[in-house]
């Protein structure tokens, strides 16, 4: 691996539910087990093959475990395998860091780290954290973080940790505690037939009124849960949690309402500095990775010690987060999007709100597959480009920027070829639907500002976007294109104001 690496190991239970007999024994503090023996020769050979790099650390690979057990599903790593993997990491030169150090690192703050840092995190807070993992970590002088589902603490013994065991872990000085919801590590009912979905990403079926909860009810439920997690940790002397991990790896999908991911992400980042999710591929996070959902590499029962260290070594670097939004994001939706919808666009599939995806490989800007105004409104407002901007800013993946440029060039060429829309060329159904034109103006100003800030906007495309924005300004400034009697007028007036503030050199800017 080129640059030196910080490694995060996450032992998670974001897995299918496992049945346990509910008992009251063992008591509040279970017995710990002795660390398993490891094959020293195997550990040494693996460490020599995949040593920690010698340069100063600049990136952070993130790993996720799914619990420790002698037997069980593919998510349960055998304790002997876990002990071998920890021994190999130590032999390869990795050292552990605290949750606070990691948080400061990914926020881009100055922080002192060991030569080859490792952050170990254990999701949910299962009993094997105390009984099985802690003795192994103590053996190597490692420390770790528990991503705690606080509402599960003390329940379903002997599966979950008790608060007494958590106190022992905290007092050892080897453990930090963060959040994985209060009671969100479960499924909720999603329809009258008994269908189920993840707590965080699904509207819940309400049996009493016989309907799905509203978005307002969903938001209130999520807020109660996240606030409860923060409060539980604070009230038990564990401090203010800065890290959050999504249960079941569901930060976005699956969902039964496409509006949920944006709401969920907003609520999470209102409370936590760093959010983590799982991935089947490793990635190395840079300093200043930013306020986005950071990936973790899942380790399964079948993952060998050699494959674990090789995965860390070969993990690609996640690009730094792109600059934050400025005043161009005058409405929150302008700074949001869907990575899933952006991925569809890379394949020529346009996903517009309320409609099934439509294949448009090379837009001619005459498309109208559903013959409906709402589809045309979103299409000619260029709303799908916001998904590409969002995905590019979140991941740094140049494919999103390339596709965005392709769509914008196509649009500018078609816009330049149109007749003067103020006289004979108006088309109120498509291009010149005034409410859609307002949102197109908001979108173009927003997209141009973000691409300019990152240096991804060449002169020709910038000039073309400016021409389109200037024409939109002239269009929106006409009294006939202002809706006095309904809320559309707010968007139209806002768009004109944003154009005038962002392009003061335009001859009519002061008047607008």
Q: What is the straight-line distance between the termini?
A: 55 Å
Number of helix segments? Answer: 15
Tell me the number of strands.
Answer: 17
* CA radius of gyration: 26 Å
Taking pLDDT < 50 over at least 5 consecutive residues as the criterion, the unreliable ranges are 12-26
Give the overall pLDDT as a whole number: 87
Based on Cα principal axes, name the global outline.
Answer: elongated
Helix % is 25-40%
> Tell me about the biggest sheet?
11 strands, mixed
Secondary-structure-based class equals alpha/beta
Beta percentage is 5-15%
Protein architecture, described:
This protein is of the alpha/beta class. It is built from 15 helices and 17 strands. Strands 1, 2, 3, 4, 5, 6, 7, 12, 13, 14 and 15 form an eleven-stranded mixed beta sheet that branches. Strands 8-9 form a two-stranded antiparallel ribbon. A two-stranded antiparallel ribbon has the order 10-11. α2 (79-92) packs parallel to α4 (128-140), α12 crosses α14 (459-477) and α13 (434-454) runs parallel beside α15 (488-502). The longest helix has 21 residues, at 215-235. It is elongated.
Indicate the topology.
Layout: E1 4-5, E2 7-11, H1 40-49, E3 57-65, H2 79-92, E4 95-96, H3 99-106, E5 117-124, H4 128-140, E6 144-148, H5 163-171, E7 175-179, E8 187-189, E9 196-198, E10 205-206, E11 211-212, H6 215-235, E12 243-245, H7 260-269, E13 274-279, E14 284-286, E15 293-298, H8 305-314, H9 339-346, E16 349-350, E17 358-359, H10 373-380, H11 384-395, H12 398-416, H13 434-454, H14 459-477, H15 488-502
Parallel strand pairs: 1-3, 2-3, 2-5, 3-15, 4-5, 5-6, 6-7, 12-13, 13-15
Antiparallel strand pairs: 3-14, 8-9, 10-11, 16-17
Helix pairs in contact: 1-2, 2-4, 2-8, 6-7, 9-11, 10-13, 11-12, 12-14, 13-14, 13-15, 14-15
């Amino acid at each position: 691996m080129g640059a030196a690496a910080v490694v995060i190991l996450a032992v998670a239970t974001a897995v299918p539910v496992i049945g346990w007999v509910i008992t009251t024994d063992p008591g509040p503090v279970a017995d710990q087990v002795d660390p398993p023996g490891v094959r020293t020769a195997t550990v040494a050979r693996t460490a020599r093959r995949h040593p920690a790099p010698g340069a100063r650390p600049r990136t952070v690979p993130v790993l996720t475990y799914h619990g420790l057990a002698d037997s069980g599903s593919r998510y349960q790593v055998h304790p002997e395998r876990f002990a071998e993997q920890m021994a190999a990491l130590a032999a390869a030169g990795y050292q552990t860091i605290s949750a606070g150090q990691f948080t400061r690192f990914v926020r881009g703050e100055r922080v002192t780290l060991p030569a080859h840092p490792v952050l170990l995190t254990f999701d949910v807070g299962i009993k094997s954290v105390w009984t099985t993992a802690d003795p192994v970590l103590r053996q190597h002088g490692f420390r770790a973080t528990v991503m705690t589902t606080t509402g599960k603490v003390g329940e379903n013994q002997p599966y979950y940790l008790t608060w007494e065991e958590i106190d022992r872990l905290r007092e050892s000085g080897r453990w930090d505690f963060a959040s994985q919801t209060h009671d969100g590590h479960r499924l909720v009912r999603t329809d009258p037939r008994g269908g189920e979905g993840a707590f965080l990403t699904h509207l819940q079926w309400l049996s009493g009124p016989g309907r799905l909860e509203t978005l307002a009810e969903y938001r209130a439920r999520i807020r109660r849960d996240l606030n409860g997690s923060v409060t539980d940790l604070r009230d038990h002397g564990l401090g203010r949690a800065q890290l959050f991990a999504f249960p079941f790896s569901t930060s976005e999908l699956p969902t039964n309402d496409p509006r949920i991911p944006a709401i969920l992400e907003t609520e999470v980042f209102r409370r936590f500095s760093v959010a983590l999710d799982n991935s089947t591929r490793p990635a190395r996070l840079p300093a200043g990775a930013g306020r986005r959902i950071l990936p973790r590499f899942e380790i399964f029962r079948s993952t060998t010690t050699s494959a674990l260290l090789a995965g860390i070594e070969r993990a690609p670097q996640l690009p730094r987060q792109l600059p934050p939004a400025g005043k161009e994001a005058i409405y929150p939706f302008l700074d949001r999007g869907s990575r899933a919808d952006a991925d569809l666009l890379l394949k020529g599939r346009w996903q517009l709100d309320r409609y099934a995806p439509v294949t448009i490989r090379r837009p001619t800007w005459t498309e109208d597959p559903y013959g409906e105004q709402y589809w045309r409104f979103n299409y000619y407002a260029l709303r799908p480009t916001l998904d590409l901007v969002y995905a590019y800013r979140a991941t740094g993946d140049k494919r999103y920027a390339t596709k965005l440029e392709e769509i914008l060039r196509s649009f500018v060429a078609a816009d330049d070829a149109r007749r003067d829309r103020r006289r004979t060329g108006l088309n109120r159904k498509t291009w010149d639907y005034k409410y859609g034109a307002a949102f197109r103006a908001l979108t173009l100003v927003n997209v141009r500002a973000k691409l300019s800030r990152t240096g991804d906007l060449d002169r020709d495309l910038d000039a073309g976007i400016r021409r389109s924005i200037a024409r939109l300004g002239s269009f929106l400034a006409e009294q006939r294109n202002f809706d006095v009697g309904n809320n559309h007028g707010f968007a139209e007036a806002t768009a004109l104001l944003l154009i005038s503030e962002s392009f003061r050199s335009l001859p009519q800017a002061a008047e607008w």
